[in-house]
UniProtKB/TrEMBL annotation:
It holds the Pfam family Glyco_hydro_59_C. The lineage of its organism: Bacteria, Bacillati, Actinomycetota, Actinomycetes, Kitasatosporales. Its EC number is 3.2.1.46. The keyword Lipid metabolism applies. Residues 56-412 form the Glycosyl hydrolase family 59 catalytic domain. Belongs to the glycosyl hydrolase 59 family. One of its GO terms (molecular function) is galactosylceramidase activity. Residues 619-782 form the Glycosyl hydrolase family 59 C-terminal lectin domain. GO terms for biological process: galactosylceramide catabolic process. It comes from Streptomyces cupreus. This is galactosylceramidase.
Length: 983
């Protein structure tokens, strides 16, 4: 085997670049469709001297654009659940994730939202604690000090961008990076391990700046500047660690140019330690086999190149599983309308196949999820593509997807990570000759062709190996594995499997379990038939009694609605407040933060622990931070003014942020606003936000400026406007009860608007233009006589939901605006869906054209016949039913005609304050008199009798009955009476 040489870039610059080595590794032979797949794990192929390219680094996560935002609230509000999450993802002997990649924030929206800029101006001292990514890495290091941390940029703060556009911004860029890195070092005790100096997803790697940055990094001797905050006794250590930061390039997406650049530029080759690209599994294949454009990434990883050195190759940004595996297993996307189980495009098995194919085709030994944790509110771009959902810090609810078990098949049966300088850590090597993938596709891969897909990892001491096999097809596949030139102890081979449940089993019955134990046949082969739609790891390791391997993921817990007392912290359903925030946080205690490179956790004051970021707010655009006003009181500022204005966001919007619970329904939101920017300003307060990332994505909002001109909006369309007296500040309020929306300025109603197709539920939004603006005393209150919120949302593909008749249940390539990216659709008359729920009403959610006509039954009794639906956007209610007695119910919706798309169901709370006038129901009962049952047909009487009984119960007094329930009961009674058919 080749002797590893570790040369600096100066030596490499002198090396010849005239020819590239032609010794590209030969992949395993193609496999026929029916024959068993034979794999030979040959110890001679385990390259112990390859310490960069073929060492299996495992998995990482990307923290960026608000995806980690709510994690800091979990840490403060639910510390036990938060630290449990840290242990599950980053801890243990075999960590699932061992790298936190941080995309530097710029207060601009770079897909799902905005991360704070660590330096908003050139003069501001860097503050890494604003960024949840730096905090997450610090906390993860408390359970794994060896965790790697990397950073890169996408959009720059304007002070950097302005100079960069002139072609003179290298120093500004370097200052932003350096001061951020050193601030994280000073606060958390760790030095960033990797920096990509280039921009995220570039198409043309900036080779000249990469070189400039590397030289500046390694020659920097300035660590005494007071701006860095480094004590004198730590400067030498910091300098040494700083100058050892490695370079990763170039995070391309649609192009693959950095590989050939490295192979033809000796200086660049010596400067770059790792290469990464996004969202494709394949290498570059143009040119002759000995050219720099043919398999450049394979040549880099294997060391089969001119320089005889191997480089790390990363799948440096890839997706998590789309939707939730526990819902998508009920899809009808398999052959003949069968389920694809835990497989199918964008599924957990898709992730596994991406990892296998990314390695087999381009030798990438590290996969970075964007994101692994979804800690931002649903409804933003790219929702529902994560391994863990963390969106309700007030409840502590965390959903661990089954995709975690699938990915553990790679990490729990090998020693993963980064090899040390002496090559003694024992990180397992990937074995190219025993790895292969024939599944189709390059990003959303498809294993339904049944082609082999497997990856082999081996101990460099040749004592053990593990082969991971993915079968995302509807037919079984037999594998025969043989070990040669290995120093195995016990030749037994354990078989660990994950797949969907068999009929009658619990949902997780077949998740990561020991399925078999094999002994070699007379010819030395282990033979095993891999089941359809499964992932299987065959390993010589003994994990049968290993506690860590056998441990199940934590339960999710309840998604309790956000309903607090006046402090905004304590759960309290008894008062009139849904949520409140005065931005002082006197009710909050200290928060524990990982420091000293993970050696300890330090208790810090609430705001300090989180860089003055407000509670529960998820920013879509803008610099939202708690600061002190002229009186010394804490208020919420939006700082992004004309001097910092958004320069290159992915989604360009005026500053806005979101807070609250998507289940909030009828409520009044109010906030104090003021305009400290002498150049002007404008502030908006919105309600019932379900999706989108602009201020206008609140269903209803009121905006005002210091001149007193106000406007009421329906999804950004002005529906009323006027003027009040000019002022430096106002108290804005928006009240939403049913379809009626009222805007208030300083306690006076200035406009009332009725929306015939109302959005009925959603969160609160705050917005500004590009001026510094202040907010204080946010309050969200219940409205007497109206139900304040739904209690649960149930996906249409939940196991408790029963579909009868012809339904298409889709999960693959689903829309992010559909809950969990899944929908159930029918156009067949007579098709029905039955759903259990608790509460006083139920909504049918989905994007619909309004053509569906339904019969509706509750607890087996008819409540509506030929009911029409409403044309709705996604996440809106196409049909609503109110006025039911509080309790457990079963609803059945029968499609009579048209097309019905069911995304999810919402059930309504019985928490109604105040008294409700039931006189409309009483009047309707008096108007119908006492019809005789014998005069009418059985079907029409059954509907009438149900409606009359419900009306009588309402008049007698019914818990949870609200104004909308009274309206619907009255309407249903009138319709049922009018629909009576004489015999």
């Amino acid at each position: 085997m080749r002797t590893q040489r570790r040369l600096g870039w100066a030596a490499l610059a002198a090396a010849t670049t005239a020819a590239l080595a032609a010794g590209v590794l030969t992949a395993p032979a193609a496999h026929t469709a029916e024959d068993p797949v034979e794999i030979v794990v040959n110890g001679d192929h385990v390259r112990a001297d390859n310490v960069n390219g073929l060492t299996y680094k495992g998995l990482g996560l990307l923290s960026c654009n608000s995806t980690s935002n709510l994690l800091m609230d979990y840490k403060a509000e639910q510390p036990e659940r938060y630290w449990q999450l840290i242990r599950e993802l980053f801890g243990g002997r075999n960590p699932l994730i061992n790298h936190v990649k941080i995309e530097m924030g710029s207060d601009t929206n770079t897909s799902t939202g905005a991360d704070p800029a660590t330096m908003r101006t050139a003069d501001e001292h860097a503050d890494a604690s604003r960024s949840p990514g730096f905090q997450l890495a610090a906390d993860a290091k408390t359970v794994n000090p060896d965790l790697k941390v990397s950073i890169l940029r996408w959009v720059m703060p304007r002070w950097v961008q302005t100079e960069w556009n002139k072609g003179t911004g290298s120093d500004e860029m370097y200052k932003w990076y350096k001061e951020t890195i050193l601030d994280a070092y000073e606060k958390y005790g760790y030095m960033v391990d990797y920096v990509n100096p280039d921009t995220n997803e570039t198409r043309n790697p900036d080779v000249s700046f990469i070189k400039w940055y590397k030289k500046a990094l390694t020659s920097d001797n300035d660590f005494a500047d007071p701006r860095y905050g480094l004590p004198a006794d730590k400067r030498q250590e910091a300098a040494r660690a700083y100058r050892n930061i490695k370079i990763v390039a170039s995070d391309e997406n649609t192009t693959k140019n950095i590989g050939p650049a490295l192979l033809t530029d000796a200086e660049l080759f010596g400067m770059v330690d790792a290469v990464g690209y996004h969202y494709t599994t394949d290498d570059r294949l143009d040119g002759s086999p000995d050219s720099a454009t043919y398999q450049p990434y394979t040549k880099l990883a294997t060391g089969d190149n001119t320089y005889q050195q191997d480089k790390e190759v990363w799948y440096s940004e890839g997706v998590g599983s789309f939707g939730r595996t526990d819902y998508r297993v009920r899809n009808t996307e398999g052959p003949g309308g069968a389920s694809t189980g835990i497989g199918g495009v964008q599924s957990a098995l898709d992730l596994a196949n991406r990892s296998v194919k990314g390695y087999a085709n381009s030798k990438r030994t590290h996969y970075v999820f964007q994101p692994a944790i979804g800690a931002f509110y649903e409804g933003a771009q790219y929702s529902h593509k994560e391994l863990v959902s963390a969106r309700d810090p007030w409840s502590g609810h965390l959903h661990y997807d089954a995709a975690l078990y699938v990915m553990q098949h790679f990490t729990q049966f090998a020693k993963t990570g980064w090899e040390n300088d002496t090559n003694t850590k024992g990180i397992w090597r990937t074995v190219p000759e025993a790895s292969y993938s024939g599944v189709s596709g390059t990003e959303n891969v498809d294993g339904s062709n049944g082609a082999p897909s497997y990856m082999t990892l081996a101990d460099p001491a040749l004592k053990d190996f593990s082969t991971v096999v993915v079968n995302d097809s509807d037919r079984a596949r037999t594998y025969r594995i043989k070990a040669e030139n290995m120093r195995l102890g016990d030749p037994a081979l354990e078989v660990w499997e994950t797949r969907a449940a068999d009929p009658g089993q619990a949902y997780d019955a077949n998740f990561k379990h020991l399925a078999d134990e094999l002994r070699p046949d007379d010819d030395g082969f282990y033979t095993y038939t891999v089941r359809p739609r499964s992932i299987t790891t065959l390993t010589t390791l003994d994990r049968s009694d290993d506690e860590e391997t056998l441990r199940r993921l934590p339960e999710s817990g309840r998604r309790t609605v956000l309903d607090t007392d006046t402090t905004g912290k304590a759960h309290d359903t008894r008062d009139s407040v849904l949520y409140a925030d005065d931005f002082d946080y006197e009710e909050e205690g200290k928060v524990r933060v990982g420091t000293d490179n993970g050696a300890r956790r330090t208790a810090q004051p609430y705001l300090k622990s989180r860089g003055n970021q407000p509670r529960y707010l998820v920013d879509q655009t803008g610099a939202w931070e708690v600061g002190r006003d002229a009186n010394g009181d804490h208020v919420l500022y939006q700082y992004m003014d004309q001097s910092m204005k958004d320069t290159g966001a992915w989604n360009r919007n005026t500053p806005n942020t979101t807070v609250g619970d998507f289940r909030w329904e009828n409520y009044r939101a109010s906030v104090d606003i003021s305009f400290p920017d002498p150049a002007g300003g404008r502030a908006t307060l919105g309600v019932r936000q379900q999706k989108g990332m602009a201020a206008t994505d609140a269903a209803y909002s009121v905006g005002i400026g210091p001149d007193g001109a106000w406007t009421l909006y329906d999804y950004g369309t002005a529906v009323a406007h006027g003027t009040v007296a000019a002022s430096d500040g106002y108290r804005l309020a928006v009240e939403a009860k049913g379809a009626t929306i009222t805007a208030y300025v300083d306690g006076t109603a200035v406009a009332t608007y009725r929306d015939a197709t109302a959005e009925t539920q959603g969160r609160v939004k705050l917005g500004t233009d590009f001026h510094r603006t202040a907010f204080d005393n946010l309050k969200v209150e219940k409205i007497d006589g109206y139900t304040p919120y739904a209690t649960t949302l149930l996906d249409s593909m939940d196991s408790s939901v029963a579909h009868e008749g012809a339904w298409s249940r889709k999960a693959s390539l689903g829309d992010a605006m559909d809950w969990y990216r899944s929908t159930s659709t029918s156009t067949t008359a007579g098709a029905s869906v039955t759903v259990p729920f608790s509460g006083t009403g139920i909504d049918v959610i989905g994007g619909n054209d309004g053509s569906a006509v339904l019969d509706v039954h509750i607890d087996g009794k008819p409540v509506a016949k030929d009911a029409t639906t409403t044309a709705t956007a996604k996440r809106q209610a196409t049909y609503t039913l109110r006025g039911l007695p509080d309790g457990r119910h079963t609803a059945t919706f029968v499609l009579k005609s048209g097309k019905l798309v069911v995304d999810a169901f919402r059930s309504l709370s019985a928490d109604v304050d105040g008294t409700v006038d039931t006189s409309p129901v009483r009047s309707a009962l008096e108007a119908i008199g006492n019809p005789a049952q014998d005069d009418y047909t059985a079907d029409s009487w059954a509907l009438f009798d149900t409606a009359r009984s419900a009306a009588k119960a309402a008049v007698r007094g019914q818990k949870g009955l609200d104004v909308i329930g009274v309206e619907q009961l009255t309407h249903r009674l009138d319709l049922a009476h009018a629909g009576l058919v004489r015999r």
